[in-house]
């Protein structure tokens, strides 16, 4: 029996790192009596602290249930957690630590009973049709008598060989207890440095069946019989290959990428970035209208250097995308409530960032600096006969973190309760002498019935109403028609505009294809162009003649000079011959 328990009546689990004993030789006891019996079990024999059963996770409780099942034990047992009278919080009996049992499906301690019993039952899994364990706990009166299990923790392996650095490394799983196989990994904020694989080392702490980076917690009992579990000798075994070093994750911060901050950090000398190590924090002051993403009630923000993924060499900044400061938000509910009946929130634009938001982004309309367009639906107008009004999200007076809506571009708050059905003003369709139109006109007030009128009835026309005016004799519209139709549009404006008639002009002759064909004649400017071209040619030829004459004169002068020089040379030669004679 090479396990770290007192004797073979105890059951060891390398998953929990504990020894468990079923107290079958004792009768059922109250919670206090059971606790006392456990604490005295190894008294005078070992310094091991024996206590009532503790289950601190779903995995640990499942391990305990399997140990009980293998022993054929199916009774409810005490666990070492209780609460004081009149309190709601359960605590482990040997510590002041709160007993977190939220992984159980239970009442949470509702009702009477300050102690907790643990049990299990076998049940079939509906998905796999296989037998499984269903775990149960409930709080009961501490004076009830229940069976009980005792437990104690065991010594762990320490001082791992092979270059393990406790400052930068850790084990997974973290329990380095006898019979546990663990792997060396870097601590958060560290990453394994890739290096060439060194040669293996041999020795008593080497197990060649292990992979690189793996450790096995081995151990030896001091005797074959009952023995003090605290004298169990533990020893780490490893593969013989030293573990790779762990280095600290680095984050690069590019200050130019930071937006909406007052105190942008300075780059490292000669660089466009600055380096920070894992865990470093940068403090920022948000610009006007912006607050911390983490705390919307503060203009002070932070960014921290963190690790992208477990064991990753890449450092990342949190919040991501440098979004440490975000825009103050006005109330979205208030914006929805101020929207008039028969209107919609059409769009928004931030003139500071030039960012636009469409109708599918209504949940982003309420950012600081946004100008929100409130538009009446087609066929409706505001009482002041405009289609749109604009609202601005700004800061509440005296606050740097609270948003408030204001009217924008002439809009006065509050907005009207509703948009009214569109009409067109008859005043905008009154004939004037300069219109050159007949005084009698026709009107169809969106009823399909036309009326002949000489003046308007003195009330607005309905949407889609039509008016037809007629040009006086000798006049026509700009489209060369004898009449003009205008319609009341969705915007409450007559379309097209009433601009009157103009005097009829002489019709231009046109061919069958609708194009105008005038009399063919030479353009007057063509003769002028010909004369200018002739003069330019004469001037050009004159320049050539002048250049030629200049060249001839120069060549003649050179010839005469050369002849004189030749004559002089002949005379000198003649004189030299005579002197020699």
From TrEMBL:
SUPFAM superfamilies: C-type lectin-like (SSF56436), Complement control module/SCR domain (SSF57535). Keywords: Disulfide bond, Glycoprotein, Membrane, Repeat, Signal, Sushi, Transmembrane, Transmembrane helix. This is Lectin C-type domain protein. Coiled coil: none annotated. The chain crosses the membrane at residues 529-549. Residues 15-151 form the C-type lectin domain. CDD domains: CCP, CLECT. PANTHER family: COMPLEMENT COMPONENT-RELATED SUSHI DOMAIN-CONTAINING, LOCOMOTION-RELATED PROTEIN HIKARU GENKI. The keyword Oxidoreductase does not apply. Pfam families: Lectin_C, Sushi.
